[in-house]
Amino acid sequence: MTTTLDRPAPIKPNAIPKVGLVSLGCPKAxxxxxxxxxxxxxxxxxxxxxxxxxxLVLVNTCGFLDSARDExxxxxxxxxxxxxxxxxxxxxxxxPDVIEKAHPKVLAVTGxxxxxxxxxxxxxxxxxxxxPHEDLVPESGLRLTPRHYAYLKISEGCNNRCSxxxxxxxxxxxxSRPIHHVLTEAEQLVRAGVKELLVISxxxxxxxxDVKYAPQTWKGDAYETRFLDLARGLSSLxxxxxxxxxxxxxHVDKVIPLMAEGSITPYLDIPFQHASANVLxxxxxxxxxxxxxxxxxxxxxxxxxLAIRSTFIVGFPGETEEDFEILLDFIREAKIDRAGCFKYExxxxxxxxDLPGHLPEDVKEERWHRFMAAQAEVSAARAAAQxxxxxxxxxxxxxxxxxxxxxxxxADAPEIDGVVYLTSETPVKAGDIVSAEIVNADAxxxxxxxx
Length: 451
Ligand code: SF4
Description:
By secondary structure, the protein is α/β, with parallel strands linked by helices. It has 12 helices and 20 strands. The chain is globular and about 60 Å long.
């Protein structure tokens, strides 16, 4: 829904209209921002790096947790104060009344991935320049990530109905992109210099379910719109490929051989959220946890350097001390290498608000600290085991302060995992993949030297 609240900004004849962008939220929201920026540049708008130089500011919001909603509302307020002309989009945009109540001066509000509506609102408030040239935009689109890695969004929405989550309400049911479009985009990104692809969605392993795994052709070969074929296609591109938001459905096992042969990065981001059957039931999680531990152990036998990242919620309504102990045992036994942990929050409109057994904040806090301590031990043990190994790392750039380089191993996704602090006798640059000896480690990060 688009709400128009003001008149178009007058712009000087021949001046190129400039749009500022504030992008909040998860990688999926970042991909939305990239699409919007690509559309804006394709139409001849310029992107302003600051409020002062912008004729109008777009704020792409996050509405998942209450803290993210507050951050989004603050960002809108800051943009209004600094610039005055603000259009809001993204997840919180699904609730225009909340935004308009807090900030009646916003020009327009559009919801998540409503690219057309965002552009319409921009056109309404900032006249598009004449004669836009499509060739202003590189074939791979415009990206907000560094040149050497890119997020690849394979679908929107989600068919699950986890009780703590409002994403399906905000973004709707699963809508998979055709596999040949995804693979073509990935190939263009690689051609533009990307060395690492990060596959994202709400539920990566459900890819293609909504289109009944529609068959397509890409570069003369037959592919079905499904998780395994996607991994197969991406593995042909010769770059690091990380799979995020993978649920442990049985067919995930089939991608393990691609990791064993080295064509998919040995990294799985699986949002387990919990390990106790009682809590998972209350959470209405999609995948059965039966045999998960057994399967993880088999994956590790097949791919010894596999890194597993996950997210968990502690203090979910009804979580007993026993449930929590089950969770701690799970992260220790499964050796979850990297984990994000959230204290349960009552998200507006989430079904879990109505569950019985809400826990006091001090219990959530105490469990969160115990979780983090247990996870730090697992992470430190993994990091210590890396000392003395030689492995490929990708350079993210110089660490000016320390006079070293920041890099990541195959076990580290950008932004969320650890880093490798690297010394090198010869200059290296962002995107280089170099061989490094790991010489030291702390709980989360590694220290090494380029060979
Ligand atoms: S799988 Fe569950 S938590 Fe993830 S987006 Fe879907 S409903 Fe939300």
